[in-house]
Design goal:
globular, 2 helices, alpha+beta, about 100 residues, 5 strands, five-stranded antiparallel sheet
Amino acid sequence: MTIGKKIFDDIYIHLSAIDEVHDQHLSEILSDQLTNLNDELFVNVNVVKINLKTKKISFLEYENFETDPFPSLITCFENILQAVQLQSELAPLQV
């Protein structure tokens, strides 16, 4: 099953596919951080970007993401999760 899109060293995963991430620990981390962002900062993140080299995770909010073929980026929050070994955990992702 395809859960995202890979562009160079980045994997983009739509919010609706977070539960499809094969690694349960990574899926829980992403879900928890998304909940915190949405609850505390009142943002509506709709895409998660994971860089495979730097292990940086970006939470992206796009305007009219579902309807606009080229939506504008409104907000980006970044986090580096050094405790999560993304290289090995993301290896089975089909993008």
